[in-house]
Design a protein that fits this description.
The protein is built from 18 helices and 19 strands. It is α/β, with parallel strands linked by helices and 545 residues long. The chain has two domains: 295 residues, Glycogen Phosphorylase B (Rossmann fold), CATH 3.40.50.2000; 233 residues, Glycogen Phosphorylase B (Rossmann fold, 3-Layer(aba) Sandwich). The strands form four sheets. The chain has a nine-stranded mixed β-sheet with strand order 5-6-7-2-1-8-9-12-13, with helices on both faces. Helix 12 links the parallel strand 14 and strand 15. The longest helix has 23 residues. Bound molecules: pyridoxal-5'-phosphate.
């Protein structure tokens, strides 16, 4: 709680996507849902924080499965009648034209105020810029980032929203820093002074654990599109290098930076260790908005120290019912359900569990194990789509034991993290910066079965509040996939399944331990407290250079 804390800095929080609710589809996945949960926590705890984002008219994608089992994308044009029109329009220079952006206010999901920029202005030739989240090529992305960053600062000024700290949640918002520099230059500061003045007010959260995941842009394109915002090549080079690296630039434009779990902190420090003129990178582990994700009946039973199985059985029944409505498949409420919902991309290894057919098929046939999958692939990611195709094939082969739910969104996520028995997570390491779906499962007493990456290294304890897939020791002849597959089967067959079928009492104890472990430590309430304590209130700091 922030009660009693005086003079809290006012924070403007920038993010490309927000997942507040399935009815406002302007998110693609974890980053957006995290930001949405954060705004809800800010509102609950009365922190002076304001969100800035973009109103994506066509969502990220709606993704369905055709007769042949292939995913395909549709892009409905959304009407968001229920947003409040602030009456403010800001103009942003892109490709030499002035692009008008309307500013909408979202505040009805019990969230801190969220202002969304929208280029879909009647008569404008530039409506395409804010149509699809992460859609189009490099030009589109840069144009979108100019709107978020430069347009975002202009919107704050036009709305008279004051901010002491500018928080860039991931590098997409970086051009906001260039707009702060431009403001400084306009006041008569030198470039050096304006840079320093901007940087003292900016903090940055990185979400990417691998070098290749950091966005880079060619300078020519940045200049052409207007992202230079009045600066020269030399000045831009000093900030972001050549090609212009958005993460490096965000680091050089901020006075404090953090990663999103302790392990990710270590990975990020290693990744950026050779880079000069950046702040040290700390870590603040992500959290989830518990009231959004925890089943109220589970919460009630937990707080009154009552039987957790009854409310869990109810949530499981509701999941089975929604599966029946969506797919016609009927799962067995008495048999174990393992859930897995992720963006379909190679490193998350959605299909790892099918690795050895001689082990997994009999279990599916006997109906002792049931699997529920969901997840979208990026529309241009053919490899991701082929993973989905494989999952759909399994679904069709093992009707009622394997289910794939199309068009993964917040609503499906809610049913799954409340109604499955076990939550499976097996990405290659160390590629998961944090992961948050496992936290949502944990607060519902849905037990994590996970490799040790991201938040999991700080969370579930093996055999107590979940199960961990430690590396198989002393087995260098096997590759990582093979080792993890063996660990997965060993834990599943020797621990998870026996406890589920033979020791319901222990299962319930583990459910309770899972909720104990997660409900504060992995809540967005704890997270925002930490951001105020260790980041916002510490800025500006002396930079290590
Ligand atoms: C929580 C959530 C995510 C993020 O899950 P990860 O564990 O980080 O993969 C993605 N999409 C939706 C809809 C979510 O609710």
């Amino acid at each position: 709680m922030n009660t009693g804390e005086q003079n809290l800095p006012r924070v403007a929080y920038f993010c490309m996507e927000y997942g507040l609710d399935e009815k406002l589809p302007i998110y693609s996945g974890g980053l957006g849902v995290l930001a949405g949960d954060y705004l809800k926590a800010a509102r609950d705890q009365k922190y002076p924080l304001t969100g800035i984002g973009i109103l994506w008219r066509q969502d990220y994608t709606e993704q369905y499965i055709d007769e042949e089992g292939n995913p395909y994308d549709v892009y409905p044009q959304y009407d968001f009648d229920y947003l409040k029109d602030t009456g403010v329009t800001v103009n942003v220079e892109i490709w030499g034209s002035s692009v008008p952006c309307r500013v909408w206010l979202v505040d009805h999901y019990h969230n801190a105020p969220l202002y969304l920029l929208d280029a879909d202005v009647p008569g404008s030739r530039h409506t395409w810029i804010t149509s699809r989240l992460y859609g189009g090529g490099k030009e589109d992305r840069i144009a979108q980032e100019i709107i978020l960053g430069i347009g975002g600062i202009k919107a704050l000024r036009a709305l008279n929203v004051e901010a002491d700290i500018y928080h860039f949640n991931e590098g997409h918002a970086l051009f906001a820093g260039l707009e702060l520099i431009r403001e400084g230059l306009e006041k008569g500061l030198s470039f050096e002074q304006a840079w320093e003045d901007a940087r003292r007010r900016v903090v940055f959260t990185t979400h990417t654990p691998v070098e290749a995941g950091n966005e880079k842009h060619p300078h020519g394109l940045l200049q052409e599109l207007g992202a230079y915002n009045g600066l020269s090549y030399d000045q831009m080079y000093r900030i972001g290098g050549d090609p212009f690296n958005m993460t490096r630039a965000a680091l050089r434009l901020s006075c404090m930076a953090n990663a999103v779990s302790r392990l990710h902190g270590r990975t990020s420090r290693r990744l950026w260790s050779g880079t000069e003129n950046i702040p040290s990178i700390t870590s603040i582990t992500n959290g989830i908005h518990v009231p959004t994700w925890q089943d109220p009946s589970i919460a009630e039973a937990y707080h009154h120290n009552r039987d957790l199985w009854e409310p869990h059985k109810q949530a499981k029944k509701e999941l089975i019912e929604i599966i029946r409505q969506k797919t016609g498949e009927v799962m067995d409420p008495h048999a174990l359900i393992v859930g897995f919902a992720r963006r379909a991309t190679a490193y998350k290894r959605s299909d790892l569990i099918f690795g050895d057919t001689s082990i997994i098929y009999p279990m599916l046939q006997e109906g002792r194990l049931q699997l529920v999958f969901s997840g979208k692939a990026h529309p241009d990611d053919e490899a991701g789509k082929s993973i989905i195709k494989d999952l759909v094939k399994m679904d069709r082969e093992y009707k009622n034991s394997v289910v794939f739910l199309e068009n993964y969104d917040i609503k499906i996520a809610r049913y799954m993290v409340q109604g499955c028995d076990v939550w499976l997570n097996n990405p290659r390491r160390p590629l998961e910066a944090s992961g948050t779906s496992g936290m949502k499962a944990a607060v519902n007493g849905v037990l994590n079965l996970s490799v040790v990456d991201g938040w999991v290294a700080e969370g579930p304890r093996h055999g107590i509040s979940g199960w961990l897939l430690e590396n198989e020791p002393e087995n260098d002849s096997l590759d990582e996939d093979e080792r993890d597959l063996q660990a997965l089967y060993r834990v599943l067959l020797n621990e998870v399944i026996p406890v589920y079928y033979k020791n319901p009492r222990r299962w319930q104890e583990m459910m309770r331990a899972s909720i104990d472990m997660s409900r504060w430590e992995f809540s967005s309430e704890r997270m925002i407290r930490d951001y105020y304590r260790y980041i916002y209130r510490q800025a500006p700091v002396i930079l290590t250079s």
